[in-house]
Structure formats: structure tokens, C-alpha cells
Design brief:
Largest sheet of chain A: 2 strands, antiparallel
Radius of gyration of chain B: 29 Å
Number of strands of chain B: 4
Strand content of chain A: under 5%
Structural class of chain B: mainly alpha
Oligomer: heterodimer
Keywords (chain B): Membrane, Transmembrane, Transmembrane helix
InterPro entries (chain B): HD/PDEase_dom (IPR003607), HD_GYP_dom (IPR037522)
Pfam family, one (chain B): HD_5
Order of helices and strands of chain B: HHEEHHHHHHHHEHHHHHHE
Number of domains of chain A: 2
CATH class of the largest domain in chain B: Mainly Alpha
Number of domains of chain B: 2
Helix content of chain B: 55-70%
Shape of chain B: elongated
Shape of chain A: elongated
Order of helices and strands of chain A: HHHHEEHEEHHHHHHHHHHHHH
Largest interface: A-B, 74 and 81 residues
Number of strands of chain A: 4
Structural class of chain A: mainly alpha
Protein name (chain B): Chromate transport protein ChrA
Radius of gyration of chain A: 27 Å
Distance between the termini of chain A: 46 Å
Strand order of the largest sheet of chain A: 1-2
Largest sheet of chain B: 2 strands, antiparallel
Chain lengths: ~450, ~450
């Protein structure tokens, strides 16, 4: 089967490339925008990477000069950190996480003793082990052409380093407490929990700052999104980290082995969850294109409308779950057209008569309702033609405006055409279109269109 | 209990009786020989109860793998066989509304038996009465613990499997997912060891620390399962939307997905590939939308150009679904589902083994569903006739192995053909007069030269 299939694949590739020429052309200006964004200098991201780099360099240099304290422990934990980095995964919302690595790093940082022998490694040694472990774990990914997200990795290293700097100086005193007769393990446990909480908070805030800068959204909204998505994973990781430090007290190095299995269960669960979430979005995106392949709408229409709708939603401060629903609804807003026997010429729903458009919206909503899980998405699609007076959901109003804009402008990147389309939509503001949304759209287009000319 | 066969009743009675005898024995022995550590026992029993009350459905069908297993094994280490039996017995009181008394009694009994036997094995391997492990003694714990877990799991499995078999639910015994089942038990066993190992340091806090990641994992699995279900429903709904254009082919994608899954299961595909082929079967015809309606519905022979348009539909389908993160095999299945064994199919004209396995499976499922469904130009054929047609085409059009596998599966599980298309469609023009999938009505092409 080998040779003919590969020939077949080549042919398919040719067909597909042919099919996406339109998209490619539309995508090219976006590349220009990315270059400009780089030129504008993503300040926080750059600072973070620099800080992490300096921290790593100092840690490694210091450890190299002073020599490795307790090399066996360092190698054991370093190996687990490397494994964790190797098994990193991408959670919904393009968030790169490495739970096993993070838990191992926490464990190494919090370690008081190994089988009753006090652990004496310094904070800078923790940073060095983190750096070496993470690099080792990232190399195989790099070798197969999957570079890590630099900012995510820098964040992991940076916050881990901060915790080490705060905790390691206390380690000796805390270990002394566990020897004493009184409270024993309770005070160290409290200190661990408190410092971890502070570290997680720092990590979430950093993530939110980075994200707000990247997706151009309000910091407050992004912070809430980050907190929501970080809470389950971080609670598992912190519990495991403390557990690892405590387990090393009674089990010695065996703790590392025993502990790897339970965390694996958590990791597998999250990987599966992230996988299905990604597939879900890809599938909706892919199947939204059937309307284009069938000639019902212009090529790329659904994607452009969904991109625009999500940008408007962000501008209006929508939270992530709502944005996801908005994206689904925008992708599938024309799916009702599949029930038509013949495509509407040009596919421009804004130009067809009202009754027809409503019927298509109803049919589309019916299809989406069949899924049994996307009820709000179905509602957004059903009411996408409603005028402001009928008080449709916000998602419907956004889709209506984004759809109208794309029907008028299409894949064109011409500034004059964009301005004319905006003017025309503004005429209907207050009546057909929500003025607030039209304003938000104007801002979004103002950002996109000049860039497209470059 | 009523309505059960007598041997099931005897079995249930025997298990429950044995368990209570063991408990009685334990209480007597512990009163005489080694006094039980009642406070530890109480904490463990509470922990066990909490875990037992929230059984987690892992990815194995029907097998409620419960976290309580970890607590039971921790009890084996910390309070010995007698204590473990007592802890296991508390399963009777688990908070699971609607669970009948017999099931409760049996659950408690089987946990008690498993706990006692595992505890006995542990004691033997350890060579002394179990005590709360000290820091120095931890390494000596691992082998006896592994032994105890190795006895606990199979015993637990057998006790439950026998119930399922005797009550006529043999098909529910999760033999297929056994490997996965054992791996997850291995994970839970480790949790048990962790709880036991940390008991000296922070006693009951260790349970919280161990269980927190576990509950997060459980939550994530729950989310995953919910998303999975939502995903399956969504993909089915969207595929059906693609089909609404043609009145007669409604439900085709779902049935092809089902039939492809039956064949794949019959030839022993693993769970991941099985899921992939179900999706491939579901999506195999989405590219049909790229074929102009007038060509699909044309009565009479097609011109070469029109035939070329039809031949393109697998590629169009591939083009649509390409961005989805499926197994590559699924794409190959969609791309080549109209290839024939004799090399006369399309789009590439592959023959025999050159055709990807997924495509050979989908081809059989596709043709079979087409034949057993109503078409505007003929009624649905009976299953037997369609099977005969498949057999006739085996070797020329279809892969004989897949045909045989499908026939076996249909003979065993039966096949539910689509409901008769009773009402005549209001808009009669919305039907195809030809079905490109139908092997008994091959497309005729007139040469233009």
C-alpha cells in the first residue's frame, strides 16, 4: 500500500492547498500583524523570560561553583521533573501545564528531610535542578519539532524559583520543629500551605497578565478565567507536592516511585479531558465548513465571522465559557442553510428576505438542539436575526453584527471597503444592531484593518 | 432477592454468611489476642465510607472502580486482617440512595472477605503482626503490601463476576477492559500504600493529602466523560444535518458508524481504533455536500464529468475533516471508502491490501446500510438479501475478511434496519434517484466520445 498511498496523499495535499488558497491569502496579513506585535515588544512576556533566564543562570552557576549538595536526591527529583516536563499537556485555552513536573518541583522545594536525614540544599540549587530537569524534559519535544511555549516554561521556572527563595531559608528551622515534642508536623504543614498558596496566586496573576496582553482582553476578566482553570489542577499539584515532601520523610527515595503512580492517574484524567475538548472545537470548526464546501456561503465565511465575534466578545469583557459558546454559535450560524435545496446565490444572508433568514436560523438552531448539550448555542443561533427591540441574547447580537460585516466585506482586506461596510452597519445601530456592539466592532476592525494593509 | 435463580441466592447467602463468620471470628480473636487500635480503625472506616459513597466510574464500562479500595488496603497495613474485615463491612452503610439491601449486604461482605484474606497474606509475608509502619521499616512494607494487593484485586473481581454470571448478567463482566481495570487498581493500591506510609507523620491528614489529587482526578474524568458524550452527540447531530438535504439517506451516517464499529469489534480492534473508526464511519460522506445536488439526483447515466464530481466526494470529505485531531487511519478510511478489491474503485483505484483497513471496513458497512434502507427507486432489501449481495461482492468489491466478520456480528447481535420511510416526502424533488453507495445499482457513465 505504501507507494500508491503516498502518491494519493500528495494529490490530496494538492487539492487541499488549492482549497485553502483563499484562506492563506486572508491569513497572510495576520502574519504581518504578528510581526508588528513582536516589534511592539510584548513587554511583560519579555521581562518574564529575561527574569527566568537570569534566575536559571545564577542558580546553575552557583550550584556549579558550590557543588551539588545531596546529589542523589537532586538527581532523583530532577529526573521526575524531567519526566513531568516530557509529559506536559495543553489544557483548553492553549494553556501549557506540566502537573507532574510542578508537583516534583514543589516536593523538592518543600523537602525537609529524606528518611530522617535533614535535606540541606539551597534555594539556588532548587533553581538549578529545576532548570536542568525542565531542559532535559523539553529536549525530546524540541527534537520532534514541538518547541515549548517559552513564556509558560519561564513562568513555571520563575514561580518555582520564587517559592524556593522564600522557603529554603526556613527549612532548617522547620525541620527542628518536627524533632521537638510539641506540635510536630503541624507548623511546617501550615507554612508549606501558606507559601504554596502565595506562589499559586503569583503564578495565576502572571498568567493573567500574559494572557491579557496576548488576547487583548480586560485583566479582570482574564484573571477570573485563569483562576477558574487553574484551581483544580493546582489543588491536585499542591497536595501532591506536600505529600511528596512528607512521604520522603517516612519512605525515603521510595516515595518518588510510589508517588509517581497516583499522580499519573490525575495526569491521565486531565490529558483525556484536554484532548476531547480540543477535538470538540476542531470538529465544530471543521464541520462548520461543510456550508462552504456545499457552496452555501463564501469560503472562509464561518471562520471569519467566528474570529470577529470572539474578538468583539473579548472587547466586551465576556468570560471564557461564554466566549466558547459564542465561538460555536458563530461557527455554526449558517448551518440551517444545509436544509435548503439550493444555495442562496452568493450565500449572503444579510441580503435575503427576513422571513427566509429567520427560517434558516430556526432550522440551524434545531440542528444544534439535536446535540442535547448546546442549548444556549442553539438559542444564540435561533435569534441571530432578531432586531434590538426583541432583546436577543448578547451572543446573537454579536453574531448578527459580525455576520453583516463579513457579508459586506468578505475576505477583502481593503480599508475603504471596511470603512464603507462599517458606515452602513452604523446606520442600523440602535435599531438592527446593538450600538455597544457596533462600537466594539469598530475598535476591533480599527486594530485589524491597518495591520492588514502592511 | 426475589426472582433470582436459586444458585444465585445460595451464592449470595454463602458470601454474606462467610463474611459475618469472619467478623465474629475477628472480634473474638482481637478480644483474646491483640487488641485492635480502635481510633485508627474508626478513622479508616470513616474514610472508607466516604470513598465508598462516591464511587467513580472510570473509563471501564459498568465497573464502578471505587476509591474505597485504597482505604481498604491502608486498613490491611494499619489494623491487620481483623480490622480490615471490619472496615470493609462498613460498606453496608454507604450513602448510596436506592441501593437494595441485598446489594449492600453483599458489598460489605465481599469487602470484608477480601480485606481479611489480603490482611492474612500481608501478615504472612511480613512475618509478624502488622503495626503502624515506622520510618525505618517502610521499605520492608512494599513486598507484603504488593502481595496483599495482588490477592485483594482478583478475589474482589471473582466474587463480583460470579454474582454477575449467576444472575444472568455475564455480558457485564468487564473482560475487554480488564487491562485498563488492573492498571487503575494498581494506581489505587499505591494510594493505599501512601496513606499507610504517611500515617506515622501526620496521621489522618495523610488521607486528605492523598485523596485530594484523587478527587481532582475523578472530577477531571467526570468532565472528560461528559465532554465525550457531548462530543458524540454533537458529531452525530452535525452529520445528520449534512444529510437533511436527502430525505432517504437520513440516519445513514449513524448506522454506518454502528456497523463499522461492529466489524471493527469483531476483528478485535483496540478501544482507541474502535472509537476512531466509529467517527470515520460517521463522517465518511460529509464530502457529498460538495457534489452538486443535480448530479446526486440525476436520473439515468452520468456524463464523465458528473461522474468525476461524484468521485471527488471522499476527497472533499477528507478536506473538511482534516483539521480534526483523529488517528490518521480515520482519514484514510474516509478517503478510500469507495475503493474496490479489484482496483476499479475511486478515487485512487487502490486494490486488495493497498486499501487501508478502515476503508475496507467502511465500504462493507456503507454498502450494507444502503441496501437495507429505502431508496426512492426501490424499497429496502431484507437483511438476508443484503448479506447475500455482500457475499457475492466479496473478493471483487469487498474484503472477504470484513464481510465475514460483519456477517458473524449481524448473526449474533442482529441488525436494526431503519424504519420504513412511510410518509411520502412533501417535496418529492428532495430525493436522490440514485444512491452512489448502492452496489446493486451501479452508476452508469456514458462516454462523451
Amino acid at each position: 500500500m505504501s507507494r500508491r498511498v503516498s502518491a494519493a496523499n500528495e494529490k490530496v495535499n494538492a487539492t487541499i492547498e488549492h482549497g485553502t488558497v483563499g484562506r492563506r491569502a486572508a491569513g497572510h496579513p495576520a502574519a504581518g500583524a504578528a510581526a508588528r506585535a513582536l516589534g511592539r515588544f510584548d513587554s511583560v512576556r519579555f521581562l518574564l523570560v529575561c527574569a527566568a533566564g537570569v534566575l536559571a543562570a545564577v542558580g546553575v552557576a552557583h550550584t556549579a561553583a558550590a557543588g551539588l549538595v545531596d546529589p542523589e536526591i537532586a538527581i532523583g527529583f530532577g529526573a521526575l521533573i524531567a519526566v513531568g516536563e516530557l509529559a506536559r499537556l495543553t489544557m483548553p485555552g492553549n494553556r501549557e501545564v506540566a502537573p507532574i513536573g510542578a508537583a516534583a518541583a514543589l516536593g523538592y522545594t518543600l523537602l525537609l528531610d529524606m528518611g530522617d536525614v535533614p535535606a540541606r540544599h539551597s534555594a539556588l540549587q532548587v533553581v538549578a535542578v529545576l532548570t536542568v530537569g525542565m531542559t532535559a524534559g523539553a529536549l525530546p519535544h524540541l527534537a520532534v519539532g514541538r518547541p515549548p511555549k517559552l513564556d509558560a516554561m519561564a513562568r513555571r521556572l520563575f514561580t518555582g524559583g520564587l517559592l524556593a527563595l522564600a522557603y529554603r531559608p526556613l527549612a532548617d528551622g522547620l525541620f527542628g520543629l518536627t524533632r521537638g515534642r510539641g506540635e510536630g508536623w503541624w507548623p511546617p504543614l501550615g507554612v508549606m500551605a501558606l507559601l504554596i498558596a502565595l506562589m499559586v496566586l503569583a503564578d495565576v496573576v502572571l498568567a493573567a497578565v500574559l494572557r491579557a496582553e496576548r488576547v487583548r482582553a480586560a485583566f479582570r476578566v482574564v484573571l477570573r478565567d485563569e483562576l477558574r482553570s487553574a484551581a483544580p489542577l493546582w489543588s491536585a499539584v499542591s497536595a501532591s507536592g506536600i505529600l511528596l515532601a512528607l512521604a520522603s520523610h517516612s519512605m525515603g527515595m521510595a516515595a518518588l516511585l510510589v508517588f509517581a503512580a497516583p499522580l499519573l492517574v490525575t495526569q491521565v484524567a486531565f490529558r483525556k479531558y484536554a484532548g476531547i475538548r480540543a477535538t470538540y472545537l476542531q470538529t465544530v470548526r471543521a464541520l462548520a465548513r461543510v456550508t462552504e464546501v456545499g457552496g452555501y456561503v463564501e469560503p472562509g465565511h464561518s471562520h471569519r465571522v467566528s474570529r470577529m465575534a470572539v474578538a468583539i466578545g473579548r472587547e466586551l469583557g465576556m468570560a471564557e465559557p461564554e466566549l466558547l459558546e459564542l465561538e460555536y454559535a458563530a461557527l455554526m450560524h449558517d448551518i440551517g442553510q444545509l436544509s435548503l435545496r439550493d444555495p442562496i446565490p452568493g450565500g449572503a444572508t444579510v441580503l435575503t428576505d427576513r422571513g427566509q433568514a429567520r427560517r434558516i436560523a430556526e432550522l440551524g438552531a434545531e440542528v444544534i438542539r439535536q446535540t442535547g448539550v448546546l442549548d444556549r448555542v442553539a438559542e444564540a443561533v435561533r435569534r441571530q436575526c432578531d432586531s434590538c427591540a426583541e432583546d436577543p441574547p448578547q451572543a446573537s447580537r454579536i453574531i448578527k453584527a459580525a455576520n453583516a460585516y463579513d457579508d459586506l466585506v468578505g475576505g477583502s482586506t481593503d480599508r475603504v471597503r471596511a470603512a464603507a461596510a462599517l458606515d452602513r452597519i452604523r446606520l442600523g445601530a440602535g435599531d438592527e444592531y446593538d450600538p455597544e456592539i457596533v462600537e466594539a466592532m469598530t475598535r476591533v476592525i480599527g486594530r485589524l484593518v491597518p495591520a492588514r494593509r502592511g | 432477592m426475589r426472582g433470582l435463580p436459586w444458585f444465585a441466592k445460595v451464592y449470595l447467602g454463602a458470601v454474606i454468611g462467610t463474611a459475618w463468620a469472619l467478623i465474629g471470628h475477628s472480634v473474638l480473636v482481637s478480644a483474646r489476642l491483640a487488641p485492635l487500635d480502635w481510633s485508627t480503625l474508626l478513622v479508616l472506616a470513616l474514610l472508607f465510607l466516604v470513598c465508598e459513597s462516591v464511587p467513580t466510574l472510570l473509563n471501564v464500562r459498568q465497573a464502578a472502580v471505587s476509591v474505597s479500595f485504597s482505604a481498604a488496603l491502608a486498613a490491611v497495613v494499619l489494623v491487620g486482617p481483623e480490622g480490615a474485615a471490619l472496615v470493609g463491612m462498613t460498606a453496608v452503610f454507604s450513602v448510596r440512595p436506592g441501593l437494595p439491601l441485598v446489594k449492600r449486604l453483599f458489598n460489605g461482605a465481599q469487602f470484608a472477605i477480601c480485606g481479611f484474606v489480603a490482611g492474612w497474606v500481608y501478615k504472612r509475608l511480613l512475618g509478624g503482626h502488622p503495626v503502624i509502619p515506622s520510618i525505618a521499616g517502610f521499605d520492608d512494607l512494599i513486598v507484603p503490601f504488593a502481595g496483599a494487593a495482588a490477592v485483594f484485586v482478583p478475589l474482589n473481581f471473582v466474587l463480583i463476576a460470579v454474582v454477575l454470571v449467576t444472575t444472568g448478567q455475564a455480558h457485564q463482566v468487564p473482560l475487554r477492559g480488564l487491562a485498563q481495570f488492573l492498571v487503575s487498581y494498581l494506581g489505587y493500591a499505591t494510594f493505599g500504600l501512601l496513606i499507610a506510609g504517611l500515617w506515622t507523620t501526620v496521621n489522618s491528614i495523610s488521607a486528605v493529602l492523598v485523596l485530594l489529587p484523587l478527587f481532582v482526578a475523578r472530577w477531571a474524568f467526570g468532565q472528560y466523560l461528559a465532554q465525550q458524550r457531548a462530543y458524540d452527540a454533537t458529531i452525530a447531530a452535525l452529520c445528520q444535518a449534512v444529510e437533511t438535504k436527502d430525505y432517504y439517506t437520513r440516519g445513514h451516517c449513524t448506522r454506518v458508524s454502528l456497523a463499522s464499529g461492529m466489524i471493527a469489534e469483531e476483528i478485535g480492534m483496540g478501544p482507541e481504533r474502535l472509537r476512531a473508526i466509529r467517527y470515520a464511519g460517521m463522517l465518511h460522506d460529509v464530502g457529498k455536500l460538495g457534489v452538486p445536488t443535480k448530479v446526486l439526483q440525476k436520473d439515468g447515466p452520468l456524463t464523465e464529468e458528473e461522474y468525476a464530481a461524484i468521485q471527488l466526494h471522499p476527497m472533499r470529505g477528507l478536506e473538511i475533516v482534516r483539521g480534526i485531531d483523529f488517528l490518521d487511519e480515520a482519514f484514510a478510511g474516509i478517503m478510500h471508502h469507495h475503493e474496490r478489491q479489484d482496483g476499479k474503485g475511486y478515487p485512487m483505484g487502490l486494490a486488495g491490501d493497498e486499501i487501508p483497513e478502515f476503508a475496507r471496513i467502511i465500504a462493507v458497512a456503507d454498502a450494507f446500510d444502503s441496501m437495507t434502507s429505502d431508496r426512492s427507486y426501490r424499497g429496502a432489501r431484507p437483511v438476508e438479501e443484503a448479506v447475500a449481495e455482500l457475499r457475492k461482492g466479496a473478493g471483487t468489491q469487498f474484503d472477504p475478511v470484513m464481510v465475514a466478520a460483519f456477517v458473524r456480528a449481524v448473526d449474533r447481535d442482529g441488525w436494526e434496519p431503519p424504519r420504513k420511510v412511510v410518509p411520502l416526502p412533501a417535496d418529492a424533488s428532495q430525493t436522490t434517484t440514485k444512491d452512489h453507495d448502492d452496489p446493486t445499482a451501479p452508476i452508469q457513465v456514458v462516454s462523451e466520445r
